[in-house]
Design brief:
With 287 residues, this protein is of the alpha+beta class. The protein has one domain (13-275): q2cbj1_9rhob like domain (Jelly Rolls, Sandwich), CATH 2.60.120.620. The protein contains eight helices and nine strands. The protein has a six-stranded antiparallel sheet with strand order 1-7-4-9-3-2. A three-stranded antiparallel sheet has the order 6-5-8, with no helix packed on it. Helix 5 packs across helix 8 (259-275). The longest helix has 18 residues, at 24-41. The radius of gyration is 19 Å and the shape is globular. The two termini are 12 Å apart.
Length: 287
């Protein structure tokens, strides 16, 4: 199969904006569950006002509602992740983040993988992938993500560029998402969350994927695994070994007994992608 155009954008630019990737019914479920989780966990944080930290991550988001588990292998996104990372894919981190009106809380133009040892992510573009999902529209001044295109190919340790982020520039790309959009990117790309100069909290769900042999974070494993990890695909994504040899390097969605089921799921997802007219660029590149 020809590579999907978003995958080519990911490989060449280091990021891709996926507009309208969440279907309306799913988006409504996700937004309602996110707002309930915020109400449960952010009272003290919000009460601190200007003294509060700029951002807050809701704890154990996968346990808050099954909609966040369903987001892990969403049919309109999962085929892209498999194309990028391969069949040994695993969820590494799951975060639900709120960012109040404040200056940015991240270093300007940073790579998330600067601390990696033993491998150069700039030479291995399929090392990890990160995706932000948005339950609400953002304004241009509401802490949007910005990227320096192509910088995911830089060797680890490359000095950060001195580019002013406080005003628009052709040297970086700012993405202003709508509710139901997602932004998929290579975590090694020089990027940042811009200042939130609006009057509104920015909400986003952030899922990071890697390979099964990587250590995952506690946030990437639901408490009630026996209930939610009911397929080979879900078990692998949540770090459970099912390979024939039982080791970390043998783990794959192409486990012999599951090949037909997994290929069917991925093909269904690809068809959804190619049929989504609002995602005009998500179609086989030979069309």
């Amino acid at each position: 199969m020809e590579k999907l155009e978003p995958v080519l954008s990911y490989e060449t630019q280091g990021f891709v904006h996926l507009p309208g990737i969440l279907e309306p019914a799913f988006l409504a479920r996700m937004k309602a569950a996110f707002d309930r989780a915020i109400a449960r966990h952010t009272e003290k944080w919000l009460a601190a006002g200007e003294a509060a930290t700029p951002s807050f991550d809701l704890p154990h988001i996968l346990d808050e509602d099954d909609v966040f588990v369903d987001l892990v292998d969403l049919p309109t996104v999962f085929p892209l992740l498999v194309e990028i990372l391969g069949y040994d894919i695993q969820l590494i981190i799951a975060q639900a983040r709120v960012f109040r009106p404040a200056l940015t809380f991240v270093p300007p133009w940073h790579s998330d993988l600067d601390g990696v040892r033993g491998i150069d992510p700039g030479m291995n573009p399929h090392f990890m992938a990160k995706i932000h999902f948005y339950p609400e529209d953002l304004t241009p001044a509401q802490g949007c993500l910005a990227f320096i295109p192509g910088s995911h190919r830089y060797s680890i340790g490359t000095p950060r560029p001195r580019i002013t982020y406080s005003q628009d520039s052709p040297l970086f790309k700012k993405i202003v998402p709508k509710a139901g959009d997602a932004v998929l990117f290579n975590p090694h790309i020089f990027h940042m969350c811009l200042d939130n100069l609006s009057a509104y909290v920015r909400k986003s769900l952030i899922y990071t994927y890697g390979h099964f042999w990587m250590k995952n974070y506690p946030s990437a494993v639901p408490t009630h695994l026996e209930r939610v990890a009911t397929t080979h695909q879900r078990k692998q994504l949540f770090g459970l070994r099912t390979g024939s040899r039982g080791d970390h390097f043998d783990q794959s969605l192409l486990n012999q007994s599951m090949t037909k089921e997994v290929d069917g799921l991925l093909e269904s997802g690809r068809k959804l992608l190619s049929k989504a007219k609002q995602l005009y660029f998500i179609k086989p590149s030979n069309q």
